[in-house]
Amino acid sequence: MKKEIRLGVIIGYISMAVSTFVAIFFTPILLNNLGTSEYGIYALISSVIAYFSVLDLGLGSTAVRYISKNYKKPEDIKTINGILLKIYIGIGIIALLLGIILYFISGFIFTELTSIELHKFKISLLIMTVSVAISFPFSVYSSYITANEKFVFQKTTVLLQNLLKPFLMIIVLIFGYKSIALVAVLAFVNLFTYLLNYYYARKKLNFEYEFKKISENKPLVKEMFNYSFFILLATIVDTVFKNTDQVILGAVSGTFAVSIYNLSMQIRSANSNFSAIISQLFFPKLTKMVENKEPISKISEIFNSVSRIQMMILTLIASGFIMFGISFIDVWVGEEFREVYFVVLICMLPNLIPLSQNIGIYVLQAMNKHQFRAVIFFIIAILNIVISIPLAMKYNSIGAAIGTAIAVILGQIIAMNIYYSKVIKLNIKRYWINFTKIVIPVLSIAILLKILVDKLPMSLLYLIMYISIYSILYSIYMYVIIMNTYEKGLIKEVFIKICRKSKLIKGEK
User: Fold this and answer.
1) CA 499 to CA 493: how far, in whole Å?
2) pTM of the entire structure?
3) Within 13 Å, how many C-alpha atoms sit on residue 64's CB side?
């Protein structure tokens, strides 16, 4: 891996660790200060606003691909930047109008909310609508930074964002403000990061654009929209999987069920984000490999190498949660939220497979063969809604989780693995051999050990001690038994660099 990718991965994991740490310790503060009702509003507004991401139309990934593809043609990149800016300004205006419409009809959608809850929801909606509308034009600069493989700056910005949000929110809570103020903090921090990306792209990377009439670039615009359309479908599906259950629960069960599901989403999102950190950094590289017509065997090698690393990380999280999850929930938010444990497991276990295969998404996009995935996911998204509504009405958050898990198994596991193997010609057999060696034994042992863990004395300090001991033993097992020479080399390289930085050993810089 290039130095920029290695450092990007390291900073990405530090950022993810900070985000996870903040979620663990900050969420109880939110619950205690806001109460279930206000926290439910805060969670609901996050889910509703997430739907605005579909307005991106898949152009974020399209921008990265086409800028990477034309990295030797600066004039073409200027044209692409200009086209994207014009489109995104229009999308921002549309987002603003949609937010205003939703403001007026929200009372007819969320009938389970009280009048006070609905009022607070509407104000929060307006704040986040403005924030989202502004975000679209600025996303061009973020895509430009990614295409130029400046991952260190990008991941450092995310780390700063993860630190700023809880810090400012705590200040707001100290002064007695509630959910509306927290939403305003989110909007402010988002704007701050948009401006950072703008400055870096313009001043450090010489971002330039040229506004031309769309009619002058019809072939290019048509090609970009054909490419982005199926990314849009995939984005819709991803949004459905992540947010529809909460919206359904808000409509049929109320804010407590939404709170349960949102707490589970925090854990599952952290799990998902850990897997995405490595994969997303390879998109520009994969695009250039495809453009240079490198053989599929080399792309398949990257697929399996990255998926192995992701398996090791995800299996640690999943096995640890199987054993310590209930105790963690009790310490984190209280015994009354134990249902979160079962919701997480129902969704987390089937997701081990697609999350460890995250690199495949970028392989498809780089090869412009992502259409099948989008169509299959769109069908499964509809099925997810159909299944989840009756299940949520009968079993609340657990029912919604079961509906989503069924959709994951059908779409992201069965259909996609057949496509990867038969059409893309990736070595999926090698993936499943790795999965059998890495994941299955560990999860089986974790299920057996849970019986023992349940009998151990438990408190916050005990929990930290148990998790630390397990993580160390797991790491030793992976290093000695599972890791190949290349993976061990990466660990040694990182360790040596840390030692050098700490002046424990000397070496050439």
Assistant:
1) 10
2) 0.71
3) 25
